[in-house]
Design goal:
By secondary structure, the chain is an alpha/beta fold. About 30% of the residues lie in helices and about 20% in strands. It contains 4 helices and 7 strands; from the N terminus they run E-E-E-H-E-H-E-H-E-E-H. A 7-stranded mixed sheet has the order 2-1-5-4-3-6-7, with helices on one face. The longest helix has 18 residues. The two termini are about 20 Å apart.
Length: about 170
């Protein structure tokens, strides 16, 4: 289920601040690349136990979204905060090392200094944001692993409902 709160409503229904950076692949990323598509953004960190519990669900979610031409997925790997940058990778040397170990592969932006986390006002990881084609935040939730039922299928159904109500307005 979507939690329709995000920083006390600061961004819900409003434009998400633009951000840019470098992906794990080394490619440059700019927020403009998301324009025109519905996008799920997963903000997480290797240091975060709840994120590690969500990891298999995130891999399945990214794979399912890759099959939908009207929906995009990206993740943002972030340290806990600007003062704990050295804790960002937990027991791994890098996000790529983690992906290689687990067999995961999905678009991931590196927030090396927690500046994107701060800019987006992310207080909890994992956090999932649903961004509409116009760049507005239409939903927020956390922890797929804590959900009842079938977390990925239920999440995708929730996205479909948000999209339907967005177009009905």
């Amino acid at each position: 289920m979507w939690y329709f709160i995000y920083d006390s409503g600061k961004y819900l229904g409003n434009a998400l601040p633009a951000f840019s950076g470098t992906r794990v692949s080394g490619e440059a990323f700019d927020f403009a690349q998301l324009e025109g598509r519905w996008t799920v953004i997963d903000v997480w960190g290797l240091w975060c136990g709840d994120c590690m519990a969500d990891a298999p669900y995130v891999a399945a979610l990214a794979s399912a979204i890759a099959q939908d031409p009207d929906l995009a997925f990206m993740s943002i790997h972030t340290p806990p905060n600007a003062n704990r940058i050295d804790d960002a990778y937990g027991k791994y040397d890098s996000v790529q090392d983690y992906f290689d170990d687990k067999g995961y592969s999905y678009p991931t932006l590196l927030d090396a200094d927690a500046s994107i986390r701060e800019q987006l006002d992310i207080a909890w990881t994992p956090s999932y944001l649903l961004i509409a084609p116009d760049g507005t935040v239409q939903g927020f939730r956390s922890e797929l692993s804590a959900a009842d039922g079938e977390p990925v299928k239920d999440f995708l159904r929730d996205i479909a409902e948000v999209k339907k109500s967005y177009f009905a307005d």
